[in-house]
Specification:
CATH topology of the largest domain: Thrombin, subunit H
Low-confidence stretches: 1-8, 11-21, 190-200
Shape: globular
Number of domains: 3
Mean pLDDT: 89
Number of helices: 7
Strand content: 25-35%
Length: 648
């Protein structure tokens, strides 16, 4: 076992204060606009809600004792419970829009990281966050920014005070749901290492080399797969690096490779709000004077990890189609000392803009065990590559960055090593071996093979690729008498999981679908069962049962089947009557609306139940082309005279 002077995992502290967030639509809060100046000036900024921080001296002492935590910020010690229902102020603008504003404050904080356990924004709602002097603003966050879990993160607003501004436009039919349940405050102005160097934008050591300098000229494609990770734990946050990784099916499955130890620098990682910043780089070789704007993804799942080779595979929540990312290839050939003739890694030291480093010599397999100290344990012999870069360095925050071989394929990811910050020299850096991570774990959750080789071809190498062109599925939902149905819930499952609603013309669309996967589209509505249902419907259905005046449409016959028995009897009349008299709040078996593919036909229209009704969904196997006619027909249960409101 060996232990080196200044030997440490390449963990990252987070002190970058001008950080942009995930997908947003830009723009300015209404309070920033000149036409609203008078009304907001009269109202003033709400008195900030205030929380106490912890002892700075004690926090820094704890950091020294528990260096593996590598904290840069900690949650406030008191309960955070902020929502429009219990805090802030509402204003109504002349156009009918409503605006809620609330300020939060932690004295002496260098920045505030805002976490929500509930954020649901309906169409017409926008959320901003900004500093009181308006020098920093993020947003607008909209319904497209929200996560299915309802969790959300805004970080980091510089300074000790942040203002939230929620806009509910007059056209919005629903209020937003917003609950701020946690505030982390940046407390450490210098970080833990290197001494005296603030870890923020432009704060990495000057001997780092920007990715758009001449050294990175031949890496302009591969850099698009690299991102920095803003990691959130129950006791703070930190930085790491990593890369999107290709799979043998060539799909855009957003698998992301980084280091196992990144998840243990704090307690209880909340992967649901980890953020991945792509394209965070200088536009040219010199360090820019203003911070570049990354494109970001919020949230991931942990798929697999293994301590011995220090790998962790994550699956990001999704990649918008307009993100120009890249899935880097890999090489799992059994390692020898001559396999990697020269190597390169692209990373985010100290959470700074993207840098590049290169070793012109062959990487070697390190034959000894490595004692990382503390919670980081011991790596076994021969589990890591040893690389000593000739150009560029690395720092805390570079952890998890992938090591490329001479063919630009991943062969490992950064665990840590030795760096003298005074001379900017690296005496050793160690990368967990990709070939061992491939299949040495005892289960799929401890190896890469099942995830990166879904087609089971078991190749030794895989080339990188740009995301395949994404596909879409769209259609129109109409009543069986031809009227468009707005506000129908439509869900897609299988190769993607998402929910949308039809617009005023009954249209819906699912974009950014990965080709080659299987999808299921299912519409639903189970509201207002009395919609369109009257005693006149009972009379018409009764005449059908008696054979006096049979219903003239298979859809009307289906509508009359109120109990879902695939027959129309007096029992259906009984259930419908209960709805009319408000004795029942819903139909006993079927929802208030039933949906069927628009291509549905009946061999005998007078007997639509013969052979069973078709499923109320559409399936698409091995999707290759855009689908524009995934249409459905809606049938209002109990309404046999086509009198229902299609939007209700």
């Amino acid at each position: 076992m060996v232990k080196f002077y200044r030997f440490f995992p390449a963990l990252g502290l987070l002190l970058a204060l001008r950080v942009t967030a995930q997908v947003s639509e830009g723009g300015l809060p209404p309070s920033f606009l000149p036409e609203n100046a008078t009304i907001f000036a009269a109202a003033g900024i709400p008195e900030p809600l205030s929380w106490s921080g912890l002892s700075l001296k004690q926090l820094l002492a704890d950091d020294v004792t528990n260096f593996e935590q590598s904290r840069f910020a900690v949650p406030v010690r008191d309960v955070v419970d902020v929502s429009p229902e219990n805090a802030g102020q509402w204003l109504t603008l002349p156009n009918g829009d409503r605006v809620w504003r609330c300020a939060v404050r932690v004295p002496d904080a260098l920045g505030l990281l805002l976490l929500f356990d509930r954020l649901v924004l309906s169409p017409g709602c926008r959320l901003f966050a900004y500093s009181p002097d308006r020098s920093f603003v993020v947003g607008a966050y909209t319904e497209k920014s929200c996560l299915p879990t309802g969790e959300f993160l805004i970080g980091i607003v510089p300074g000790h005070t942040a203002v939230l501004e929620l806009v509910v436009e007059a056209r919005s039919r629903q209020m937003a749901q917003l609950h701020l349940n946690r505030i982390d405050y940046v407390y450490d102005p210098a970080g833990l290492w290197p001494e005296g160097a603030p870890e923020n934008f432009g704060g990495s050591l000057a001997c780092n080399i920007n990715v758009n300098c001449p050294l990175g000229q031949n890496w302009q494609t591969e850099k698009r797969g690299v991102a920095r990770i803003l990691m959130v734990f129950s006791n703070g946050a930190g930085w790491c690096s990593g890369s999107l990784v290709a799979n043998t099916a060539g799909t855009a499955e957003p698998y992301f490779l980084t280091a196992h130890h990144c998840q243990i620098i704090g307690s209880n990682p909340n992967f649901g709000v980890w953020r991945f910043d792509f394209g965070y780089e200088a536009p040219g070789c010199p360090n820019p004077s203003t911070e570049p704007q990354p494109i970001s993804v919020l949230g991931c799942q942990r798929i697999a990890f293994r301590e011995e080779t220090d790998f962790m595979l994550l699956k990001l929540n999704g990649l918008p189609q307009n993100y120009t990312v890249y899935f880097n290839g890999w090489n799992r050939t059994p390692a020898t000392n001559n396999l990697v003739q020269n190597s390169t890694f692209i990373h985010h030291p100290s959470g700074d803009i993207q840098k590049i480093s290169r070793d012109n010599d062959p990487a070697t397999i390190f034959p000894q065990s490595i004692n990382w100290g503390g919670a980081f344990g011991v790596s076994p012999p021969n589990s890591h590559w040893l690389v000593i870069p000739d150009q560029g360095i690395y720092q805390p925050g570079s952890s998890g960055c992938v090591l490329f071989d001479q063919n630009k394929r991943i062969v490992g990811q950064l665990h840590g090593g030795n760096l003298d910050p005074n001379t900017c020299t690296v005496s050793g850096s160690w990368f967990g071996r990709f070939d061992l991570s491939w299949d040495q774990g005892s289960t799929p959750s401890a190896r890469l093979r099942e995830w990166l080789d879904p087609v089971g071809t078991n190749p030794l190498t895989q080339n990188g690729y740009a995301p395949p062109t994404q596909r879409s599925i769209s259609g129109v939902i109409r009543t069986h008498w031809g009227t468009p149905m707005p506000n129908v819930t439509v869900q897609i499952s299988g190769g993607a999981s998402a929910t949308t609603r039809t617009d005023a013309a009954g249209r819906y669309t699912f974009n950014n679908l990965t080709p080659g996967l299987n999808y299921i589209v299912t519409p639903s509505r189970d509201t207002n069962p009395v919609n369109g249902v009257t005693t006149f419907d009972l009379s018409i259905a009764n005449k059908h049962i008696l054979g006096l005046e049979p219903l003239d449409s298979p859809w009307k016959i289906i509508a009359a089947d109120a109990n879902g028995s695939n027959t129309v009897t007096t029992l259906d009349l009984l259930d419908t009557r209960k709805i009319i008299l408000a004795l029942s709040t819903d139909f006993p078996v079927v929802p208030s609306w039933r949906f069927f593919p628009a291509t549905t036909s009946f061999a005998n229209p007078t007997q639509p139940f013969t052979g069973g009704l078709p499923a109320g969904l559409l399936q698409f196997s091995n999707l290759q082309q855009n689908v524009t006619d995934a249409d459905f027909i809606g049938v209002k249960v109990g309404d046999v005279n086509n009198n229902a409101n299609p939007g209700g």
